[in-house]
Amino acid sequence: MSGTTGVALVTGANRGIGAAVARRLQTDGYLVVGATRSGQAPDCQDCVQIDVASAESITTAIGEVEAKHGPIAVLVANAGITRDTLLMRMSDSDIDDVLSTNLGGSIRLARAGLRGMLKAREGRIIFISSVVAMMGSAGQVNYAASKAGLVGAARSLAREVGSRGITVNVVAPGFVDTDMTADLDESRKSEILGAVPLGRYATPAEVAGVVSFLASTDGAYVTGAIIPVDGGLGMGH
User: Fold this and answer.
1) Which of 133, 134, 179, 127 is nearest to 155 (CA)?
2) Does domain 2-225 have CATH number 3.40.50.720?
């Protein structure tokens, strides 16, 4: 981006990966707006309330941000939910809610943010996916499908808007040291770490570093890419 300045919108910015991305992009010189369901994002310079499962909420939030700060230069679609269970036990709402939030929400968010990027003839859209998009994970049929769908969405959109100087990429974290992994029992933690060649979780800051690269001038010629941050867990997938 020109001078690594401008507005960056990060969804799910109140904790974990989203909060780390917000902090890193601030360090990089962006004015960072955190978009959360509560409208609270303490590590951001500003915040906006958003429900990414609602097209109306997305349109309203993007309009508020653009009216206050100008067009969005970097859009990081990080917000997501899980409803884990075996498929035979999975309800219709478990399927619909996860797909609508994780996949549909990210696509709608990109659509809403594109107008300003197209006018500026530059921009960065970054979808936060997961290693399970490529590997699969028992008990996460809905979640894995939603995260895999982001790959097709990003690559299709990258072809649509590349001529306008807009890049669209996917970051696929593995197991990250967050509140979610902290709640796992010790046997499950040992099982996970045993499958990771580097033998440890990622830190949220390590994921944020890859987002920072994609948002920077150094990442200007990278588009339609899936970048794993998984300690080697998903290699070959």
Assistant:
1) 127
2) yes
